[in-house]
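name: query_chain
kind: protein
chains: 1
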Amino acid sequence: MKKFVCMAIMLALSTTQVFAQASSQEMPTTNVMVSIKGNPGVQQTPEFREVIPNEIRETLKLYLGGKIAHWYSRGDGGVLFIMNASSVEEAKTAIEALPLGRAGMVTAEYVPLRPLAPLGMLIAPSM
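structure:
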């Protein structure tokens, strides 16, 4: 029983150490999630309807150019993009260059996405 307890403690300490190393290292941003919603009342304006055809064309160019990996319609209105970008700044530059962004008609939230650091425990060298 004493051997089992010692082995369990050693295992717990070794996995805690690997987890701490993996989470303490800065993981690279591989994608950016961008949530975009129209500003209140803007969708009912004639200006919004005029901008939409260009917005769609420019967004499609980002997708075909590999900048947008996935795009979804939000259930509560707006859109959500998973962008191939290595920083929030890179994604923000692309979104703010779109017609609705340039016109100040939308609000966007940016979330950097990174690999799951704890998965490093699965490939850590055995002790």
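note: The domain at 31-113 is CATH 3.30.70.1060 (Alpha-Beta Plaits).
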